[in-house]
């Protein structure tokens, strides 16, 4: 079982009970805070002898002085025959008021320590603490794997909202939760009798009655040399027993003092186990320092957040879990498909490939990549691999590469198909590493490595055509991704831009759908989105969604896209044919790699044609007036200067700092957007030198041209588009 499975199943099962311990722990953390407010702490270097003298003056019947972990002093004694416990001000000994043990109900403590189940519950709580420890260790392994190592631990977190919450909270509180579970285990070991803190019996000592009067506490050398910060408890000799002694308990141990001579009669050092236990208590409860108790309380409460986000992540992954149908047993299969997937979508592609091969008469076996092997019956092997982290393998396949590198190659061809996203600097790096390793081992390939961007069905179909040719068989790969639930969106406004003949492009604005309260939390309705995220639209007559970059965020109160008529395009024809009041079926797909980080750094926005849409969305939401500079490329300002009136307004409002345009089809229009960048080379260099973040949106050819231009412009700074990408300062949204 891998770390991910351990983490998932422990989290989903025992994690539920860990939530109870986390929340009760958070409640118990109030105690030290409340105690700190109740009474002042004693000055650290006050001699205990002085404290005894002050207490003796103000509390005549005092029997015991306790130095609480919070630092406060409490004196126990009798007034007449009434037991009393009072806070005492160590500065002058005056009584501050009665001592209250804890305002929290006892059952909260019992629930935390034993789940209200007595001794059996204590074992249960210890088991939960152990599970929490395992969850922390597995979380650390997964976190490092996901982020791509220690050095990238602080890097921006990508993924769904639940994934981001889980990872970001984990980065903040993981160490504290580790400490909490370790200290809980230490304390449990003592409570359950697995470790005995002190096996020694107390010595039988007594004061030697000589007829002399009691020596006052203020004159006892031991108490003069002992500071309050080290004191735990001081028991005064009883008035009715002449042989009674002083008993002092300190951080270092405990001692007994003759009441008449002031001599130390016996001393026992605290055992090593006792010291470890004391440290564990302090770290687990925060009782000596209320700010630490606050930190512990917040960490305890975060367990609920972990559990909730973890359940959502599991639920989302469950929906995409591999469910391969029609698998032939490995030994009989002539075609093998091995899959490496984190989110599950690659398994869907594997199923499509399996179905198509089966239709062609093949016996196919599909399995996870870590099971890579061939048999006597194998004729073809296909590896479908997604990339995660900084070019790493999906978690379940983390050892697959090493495993493959050790296998002896056979003559069976192995073809690799990578799945990735060009937003990431290490595009399909894992598939590339697999391909390299296979070739180095001497495995032949039926097809060269192909990398699929953003799960593109079209690209997969093209690979299918090449595969059919190579196999010499008719084979069609028509992949229909599982479409998430859609929401109906109603068109409220459209702005048309004429092409050479008829409307060719339009900015379409849809109303934010009416959704009941809590719909977002329940995962119903339209997910919240930011400009630059994608809206998936399923046109009538098709099950395959098309994706458009969003020109607005949910906070704008509407959903806006810019659509260009594609020749024969089913979805663009559908969208451009809409009238106000018509509806579409849509869902949101986050595009976190393209989102702008919260920062005051300059932003260089480069867009061509409808690619300006997400950039317009960024500018619209620039309430903080970060310096944003837009380079816009079009053909003809009278036809395709999308968002022109808004852009002018944003310039006037200061949301957009500067605008440079380039129109390629009009004389003196400035050429392409790359030409505008080249003309402004010095300024662009200056902005990048100031730390500018770059976002590019448009066609693949345009993005390629921009990257090449920027490589030349930035060369004097020893920078390039790919270097900026690696630093997460440069992202593209290409179509
Ligand atoms: C957190 C995260 C990290 C990713 N890292 C990379 C990466 O480094 N390189 C890459 O090409 N794609 C990366 N991707 C994109 C995925 O590889 C791509 O979406 C793939 O199709 C997902 O397949 P799966 O659903 O089977 O896991 C990443 C995606 C996520 C959510």
From TrEMBL:
<keyword id="KW-0812">Transmembrane</keyword>
<dbReference type="Pfam" id="PF03929">
    <property type="entry name" value="PepSY_TM"/>
</dbReference>
<dbReference type="GO" id="GO:0005829">
    <property type="term" value="C:cytosol"/>
</dbReference>
<keyword id="KW-1133">Transmembrane helix</keyword>
<dbReference type="InterPro" id="IPR001709">
    <property type="entry name" value="Flavoprot_Pyr_Nucl_cyt_Rdtase"/>
</dbReference>
<dbReference type="InterPro" id="IPR017927">
    <property type="entry name" value="FAD-bd_FR_type"/>
</dbReference>
<dbReference type="InterPro" id="IPR039261">
    <property type="entry name" value="FNR_nucleotide-bd"/>
</dbReference>
<dbReference type="Pfam" id="PF00258">
    <property type="entry name" value="Flavodoxin_1"/>
</dbReference>
<dbReference type="InterPro" id="IPR017938">
    <property type="entry name" value="Riboflavin_synthase-like_b-brl"/>
</dbReference>
<feature type="transmembrane region" description="Helical">
    <location>
        <begin position="165"/>
        <end position="187"/>
    </location>
</feature>
<dbReference type="InterPro" id="IPR008254">
    <property type="entry name" value="Flavodoxin/NO_synth"/>
</dbReference>
<feature type="transmembrane region" description="Helical">
    <location>
        <begin position="289"/>
        <end position="315"/>
    </location>
</feature>
<dbReference type="InterPro" id="IPR029039">
    <property type="entry name" value="Flavoprotein-like_sf"/>
</dbReference>
<dbReference type="InterPro" id="IPR005625">
    <property type="entry name" value="PepSY-ass_TM"/>
</dbReference>
<keyword id="KW-0472">Membrane</keyword>
<feature type="transmembrane region" description="Helical">
    <location>
        <begin position="9"/>
        <end position="30"/>
    </location>
</feature>
<feature type="domain" description="FAD-binding FR-type">
    <location>
        <begin position="484"/>
        <end position="597"/>
    </location>
</feature>
<feature type="transmembrane region" description="Helical">
    <location>
        <begin position="123"/>
        <end position="144"/>
    </location>
</feature>
<protein>
    <recommendedName>
        <fullName>NADPH--hemoprotein reductase</fullName>
        <ecNumber>1.6.2.4</ecNumber>
    </recommendedName>
</protein>
<feature type="domain" description="Flavodoxin-like">
    <location>
        <begin position="335"/>
        <end position="468"/>
    </location>
</feature>
<dbReference type="Pfam" id="PF00175">
    <property type="entry name" value="NAD_binding_1"/>
</dbReference>
<dbReference type="InterPro" id="IPR001433">
    <property type="entry name" value="OxRdtase_FAD/NAD-bd"/>
</dbReference>
<dbReference type="GO" id="GO:0050660">
    <property type="term" value="F:flavin adenine dinucleotide binding"/>
</dbReference>
<dbReference type="GO" id="GO:0004783">
    <property type="term" value="F:sulfite reductase (NADPH) activity"/>
</dbReference>
<keyword id="KW-0285">Flavoprotein</keyword>
<dbReference type="GO" id="GO:0010181">
    <property type="term" value="F:FMN binding"/>
</dbReference>
<keyword id="KW-0288">FMN</keyword>
């Amino acid at each position: 079982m891998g770390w991910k499975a351990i983490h998932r199943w422990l989290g989903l099962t025992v994690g539920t009970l860990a939530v109870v311990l986390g929340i009760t722990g958070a409640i118990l953390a109030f105690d030290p805070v409340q105690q700190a407010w109740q009474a002042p702490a004693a000055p650290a270097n006050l001699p205990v002898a002085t404290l005894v003298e002050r207490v003796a003056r103000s509390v005549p019947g005092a029997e015991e002085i306790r130095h609480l972990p919070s630092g406060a002093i409490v004196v126990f004694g009798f007034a007449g025959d009434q037991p009393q416990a009072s806070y005492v001000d160590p500065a002058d000994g005056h009584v501050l008021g009665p001592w209250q043990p804890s305002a929290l109900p006892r059952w909260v403590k019992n629930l935390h320590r034993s789940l209200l189940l007595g001794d059996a519950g204590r074992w249960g709580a210890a088991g939960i603490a152990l599970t929490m420890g395992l969850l922390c260790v597995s979380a650390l392994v997964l976190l490092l794997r996901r982020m791509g190592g220690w050095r990238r631990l602080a890097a921006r977190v990508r993924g769904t909202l639940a994934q981001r919450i889980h990872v970001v909270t984990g980065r903040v509180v993981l160490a504290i939760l580790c400490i909490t579970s370790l200290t809980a285990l230490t304390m449990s070991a003592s409570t359950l009798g697995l470790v005995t803190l002190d096996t020694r019996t107390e010595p039988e000592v007594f004061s030697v009655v000589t007829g002399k009067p009691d020596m006052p506490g203020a004159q006892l050398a031991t108490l003069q040399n002992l500071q309050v910060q080290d004191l735990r408890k001081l028991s005064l000799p009883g008035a009715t027993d002449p042989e009674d002694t002083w008993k002092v308990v300190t951080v270092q141990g405990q001692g007994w003092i003759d009441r008449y001579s002031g001599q130390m009669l016996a001393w026992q050092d605290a055992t090593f186990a006792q010291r470890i236990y004391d440290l564990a208590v302090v770290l687990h409860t925060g009782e000596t320092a209320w700010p630490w108790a606050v930190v512990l309380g917040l960490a305890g409460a975060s367990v609920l957040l972990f559990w909730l986000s973890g359940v959502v992540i599991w639920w989302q992954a469950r929906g995409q879990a591999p469910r391969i149908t029609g698998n032939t047993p490995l030994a009989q299969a002539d075609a093998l498909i091995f899959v490496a997937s984190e989110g599950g979508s690659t398994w869907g592609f594997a199923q499509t490939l399996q179905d198509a091969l089966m239709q062609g008469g093949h016996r196919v076996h599909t399995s996870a990549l870590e099971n890579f092997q061939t048999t006597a019956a194998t004729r073809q092997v296909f590896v479908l691999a997604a990339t995660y982290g900084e070019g790493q393998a999906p978690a379940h396949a983390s050892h697959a590469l090493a495993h493959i590198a050790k296998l002896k190659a056979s003559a069976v061809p192995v073809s690799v198909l990578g799945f990735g996203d060009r937003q990431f600097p290490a595009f399909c790096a894992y598939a590339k590493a697999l391909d390299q390793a296979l070739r180095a081992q001497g495995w032949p390939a039926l097809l060269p490595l192909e990398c699929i961007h953003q799960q593109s069905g079209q690209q997969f179909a093209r690979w299918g055509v090449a595969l059919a040719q190579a196999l010499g068989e008719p084979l069609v790969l028509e992949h229909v991704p599982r479409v998430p639930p859609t929401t109906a969106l109603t068109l409220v406004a459209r702005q048309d831009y004429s092409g050479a003949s008829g409307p060719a492009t339009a900015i379409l604005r849809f109303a934010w759908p009416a959704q009941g309260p809590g719909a977002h939390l329940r995962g119903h309705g339209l997910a919240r989105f930011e400009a630059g995220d994608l809206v998936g639209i399923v046109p009538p007559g098709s099950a395959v969604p098309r994706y458009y970059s969003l020109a607005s965020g949910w906070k704008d109160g509407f959903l806006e896209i810019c659509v260009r008529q594609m020749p024969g395009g089913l979805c663009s024809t559908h969208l451009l044919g809409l009238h106000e009041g018509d509806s579409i079926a849509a869902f949101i797909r986050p595009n976190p790699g393209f989102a702008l980080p919260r920062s005051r750094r300059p932003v260089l926005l480069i867009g061509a044609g409808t690619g300006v849409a997400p950039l317009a969305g960024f500018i619209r939401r620039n309430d903080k007036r970060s310096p944003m500079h837009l380079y816009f490329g079009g053909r003809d300002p009278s036809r395709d200067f999308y968002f022109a009136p808004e852009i002018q307004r944003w310039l006037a409002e200061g949301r957009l700092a500067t605008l440079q345009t380039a129109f390629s089809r009009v004389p003196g229009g400035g050429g392409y957007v790359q030409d505008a960048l080249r003309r402004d080379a010095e300024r662009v260099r200056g902005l990048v030198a100031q730390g500018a973040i770059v976002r590019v949106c448009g066609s693949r050819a345009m993005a390629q041209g921009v990257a090449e231009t920027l490589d030349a412009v930035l060369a004097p700074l020893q920078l390039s588009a790919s270097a900026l990408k690696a630093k997460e300062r440069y992202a593209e949204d290409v179509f």
